[in-house]
């Protein structure tokens, strides 16, 4: 996508009356900054192993109001039981089929931005965040009042479905007031022929508040997906994140968690299953800014065919972040000789009284285990599948929302069967 | 049941088996004794289908067909079972799930109806009694957190569950204390019948005292140098192997 083309799309957007002009200055500023930076290249340290050509070699156009569904939308194919669902179709919030519980207020991202002076300044400087700010769709903000325990999981269903090369820029803000709790599921699906989905999510968790965040990235494998997630945690807050990714030709998770309040707990897990030429990345930064916080990272990938991936996990422990307890694990299973993974654990520790552990392994299925299973009568395919299941089972079983766990388990089965 | 004919095998060009001949009939138990490096485990591995060995001469005939070209799973389904010297730990793979999948593969192969979860649980609860394994182990991953003795008992559990015709016990006695040894021997003895055959591989007489095999063979440098009955085991225990070497 040339910068010229982007400029044209940007001008188009500035002239659409259905995009609120209150955020125009913000968009303009972000777009100017983006133009200065351009798309990341392989010369950039954090982008060495991500081939962005599916995004840069095609021209994408704005998702316009006519790209929202014109008829009633049938979402039954994407059902997850026991959730409230908010639907965003090609970037457009679908109020008609969205349901919510008391204590949750939903506003458009634009409304939110005009009300809130948010604290994610540094995060906005990454090229894809700038691009998101410049082009953000209506967006949504979920604001949970303090002391509210939201019982039912809230699902945001992102459907990307179009025959055009759409650029979709979802923007999500999640604010948890002190001592509130929420379980949220981002569910990315669709049958788009080609699309670029550039999502920015801003999560802010108040004191003693608790957020469970599951992200299911099952886009069509023609989609390129950039997820830019920013988390800020206050004292004694609790954040757990789990991403399951099996979709998109290019899917990259950029997650940055800032532990700003003492006693915060942050757990980040990810499981990616890739096949054909897919490239699925996990780029994680955990920033321990204060003392007495705990963080865990556990990321696994299973790769078939010529697929590839990156795990980059950077744990930063600042000078005054004493008593930090941080653990990082990355395991990659290569099911084909042509698949490959770059695993890049990084520790930047400036405090002296901390516990930081990390481990990384990449390898093929264990021959001895395979022989053991076959010697008990399992055919080679069943034996392989059983070992893959064993590799990922602990991760899937850690998903608390039962219907979501079940669905991911069945995605895994389908994935194994389709590679048979 | 099993006929090994002039079997020669090598690993990475190094000759290990140098002409093994052995004939095991239905219901018989044969023991192979020998020092480390004599080729005992190589023989067990070749029969069960482990890769990495070059068969340079000879054949292994099981139920009138050569085994050598068959996959490990085909051999297993046709009734060949090996109790591993070093049972493998498989994290994340649940014992019950694994055993049920293995048994149902066998049942399917025998044109029997596959067992559902309830039917399997009923069956396995009976089987674990014979090898004194607590039911809680069925909820763990395969061999995960099992002691040495528990792993070996788990091998015997798999044997009596899958009901093979030919069972190869590869140093099943190694690392067992006397109580575990008795349990393992008991499990094996209960499974003996006029149809089930065994090939027991061991260094020591200890296990053989409980099993009382019909034949004992001494393997030295890839060849069977002496065969006899239980009295041969006693002589070996007393005199060692040196008198049999050239």
CATH fold-level name of chain B: Rossmann fold
Please provide the count of β strands of chain B: 12
The residue ranges of chain A in which pLDDT falls below 50 over 5 or more consecutive positions are none
The major pleated sheet of chain A works out as: 11 strands, mixed
- The level of helicity of chain A is 10-25%
Question: What is the domain total for the residues of chain A?
Answer: 2
Could you describe the 3D structure shown?
The complex is a heterodimer of chains A (420) and B (246). Chain A is 21% helix and 39% strand. The longest helix of chain A has 18 residues, at 380-397. Chain A is built from 8 helices and 21 strands. Chain A has 2 domains: 3-261, no CATH class; 367-420, no CATH class. Chain A has helices at residues 3-14, 24-37, 53-56, 109-115, 127-135, 367-374, 380-397, 402-418; strands spanning 61-62, 83-89, 92-94, 104-108, 140-144, 153-159, 166-168, 171-176, 181-189, 195-205, 210-217, 223-233, 238-245, 250-259, 265-274, 279-288, 294-303, 308-317, 325-334, 340-349, 355-363. Chain A is an alpha/beta fold and 420 residues long. In chain A, helix 2 (24-37) runs antiparallel to helix 5 (127-135). Chain B is an alpha/beta fold and 246 residues long. Chain B has one domain: P-loop containing nucleotide triphosphate hydrolases (Rossmann fold, 3-Layer(aba) Sandwich). Chain B is built from 8 helices and 12 strands. In chain B, strand 1 and strand 2 (14-24) form a beta hairpin. The mean pLDDT of chain B is 94. Classes of the chains: A alpha/beta (420), B alpha/beta (246). Chain A binds chain B through residues 366-369, 371-380, 382-383, 386-387, 389-394, and chain B through 48-51, 71-73, 75-77, 81-82, 84, 87-88, 90-94, 97-98, 101-102, 105-106, 109, 141, 158, 162.
Layout of helices and strands:
The complex is a heterodimer of chains A (420) and B (246).
Chain A lengths: L2 H12 L9 H14 L15 H4 L4 E2 L20 E7 L2 E3 L9 E5 H7 L11 H9 L4 E5 L8 E7 L6 E3 L2 E6 L4 E9 L5 E11 L4 E8 L5 E11 L4 E8 L4 E10 L5 E10 L4 E10 L5 E10 L4 E10 L7 E10 L5 E10 L5 E9 L3 H8 L5 H18 L4 H17 L2
Helix pairs in contact in A: 2-5, 6-7, 7-8
Chain B lengths: L1 E10 L2 E11 L4 E5 L6 H9 L5 E9 L2 E2 L5 H6 L2 E4 L6 E5 H15 L7 H14 L10 E2 L5 H15 L3 E5 L7 H14 L5 E6 L3 H6 L3 E6 L2 E6 L1 H10 L7
Parallel strand pairs in B: 3-10, 3-11, 6-9, 9-10
Antiparallel strand pairs in B: 1-2, 1-4, 4-5, 7-8, 11-12
């Amino acid at each position: 996508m040339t910068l010229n083309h982007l400029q044209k799309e940007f001008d188009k957007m500035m002239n659409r009356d259905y995009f609120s002009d209150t955020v125009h200055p913000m968009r303009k500023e972000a777009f100017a900054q983006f133009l200065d930076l351009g798309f990341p290249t392989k010369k950039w340290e954090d982008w060495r192993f991500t081939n962005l050509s599916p995004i840069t070699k095609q021209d994408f156009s704005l998702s316009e109001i006519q790209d929202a569904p014109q008829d009633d939308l049938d979402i039954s194919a994407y059902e997850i039981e026991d959730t409230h669902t908010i639907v965003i179709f090609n970037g457009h919030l679908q109020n008609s089929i969205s349901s919510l519980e008391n204590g949750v207020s939903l506003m458009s991202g634009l409304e939110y931005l005009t009300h809130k002076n948010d604290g994610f300044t540094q995060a906005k400087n990454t090229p894809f965040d700038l691009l998101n700010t410049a082009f953000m769709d209506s967006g949504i903000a979920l604001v949970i009042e303090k002391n509210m325990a939201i019982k039912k999981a809230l699902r945001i269903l992102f459907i990307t479905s179009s025959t055009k090369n759409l650029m979709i820029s979802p923007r999500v803000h999640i604010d948890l007031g002190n001592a509130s709790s929420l379980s949220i599921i981002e569910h990315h699906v669709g049958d788009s022929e080609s699309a670029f989905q550039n999502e920015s999510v801003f999560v802010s968790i108040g004191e003693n508040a608790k957020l469970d965040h599951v992200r299911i990235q099952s886009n069509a494998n023609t989609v390129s997906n950039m997820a830019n997630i920013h988390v800020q945690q206050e004292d004694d807050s609790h954040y757990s994140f789990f991403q399951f990714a099996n979709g998109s030709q290019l899917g990259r998770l950029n997650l940055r968690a800032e532990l700003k309040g003492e006693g915060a707990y942050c757990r980040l897990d990810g499981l990616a299953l890739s096949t054909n030429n897919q490239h699925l990345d996990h780029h994680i930064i955990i920033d321990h800014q204060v003392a007495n916080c705990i963080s865990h990272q556990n990321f696994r990938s299973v790769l078939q065919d010529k697929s590839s991936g990156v795990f980059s996990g950077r744990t930063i422990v600042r000078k005054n972040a004493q008593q930090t307890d941080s653990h990082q694990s990355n395991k990659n299973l290569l099911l084909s000789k042509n698949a490959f993974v770059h695993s890049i654990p990084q520790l930047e520790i400036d405090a002296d009284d901390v516990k930081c552990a990390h481990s990384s392994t990449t390898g093929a299925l264990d021959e001895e285990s395979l022989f053991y299973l076959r010697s008990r009568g399992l055919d080679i395919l069943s034996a392989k599948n059983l070992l893959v299941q064993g590799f990922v089972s602990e991760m899937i079983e850690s998903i608390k929302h039962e219907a979501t766990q079940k669905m991911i388990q069945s995605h895994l089965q389908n994935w194994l069967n389709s590679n048979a | 049941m099993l006929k090994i004919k002039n079997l020669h095998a090598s690993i990475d060009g190094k000759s290990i088996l140098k002409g093994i001949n052995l004939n095991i009939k239905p219901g018989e138990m044969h023991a192979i004794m020998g020092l480390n490096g004599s080729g005992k485990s190589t023989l067990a591995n070749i029969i069960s289908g482990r890769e990495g060995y070059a068969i340079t001469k000879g054949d292994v005939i099981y139920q009138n067909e050569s085994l050598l070209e068959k996959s490990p799973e085909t051999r297993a389904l046709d009734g060949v079972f090996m109790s591993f010297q070093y049972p493998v730990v498989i994290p994340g793979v649940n014992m019950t799930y694994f055993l049920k999948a293995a048994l149902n593969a066998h049942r399917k192969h025998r044109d029997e109806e596959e067992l559902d979860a309830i039917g399997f649980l009923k069956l396995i609860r009976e089987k674990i009694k014979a090898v004194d394994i607590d039911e809680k182990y069925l909820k763990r991953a395969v061999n995960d957190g099992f002691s040495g003795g528990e792993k070996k008992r788990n091998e015997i559990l798999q044997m009596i569950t899958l009901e093979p015709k030919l069972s190869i016990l590869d140093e099943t006695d190694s690392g067992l204390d006397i109580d575990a040894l008795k349990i393992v021997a008991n499990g094996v003895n209960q499974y003996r019948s006029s149809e089930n055959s065994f090939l027991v591989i061991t260094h020591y007489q200890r296990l053989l005292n409980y099993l009382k095999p019909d034949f004992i063979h001494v393997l030295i440098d890839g060849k069977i140098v002496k065969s006899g009955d239980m009295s041969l085991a006693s002589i070996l225990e007393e005199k060692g192997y040196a008198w049999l070497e050239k």
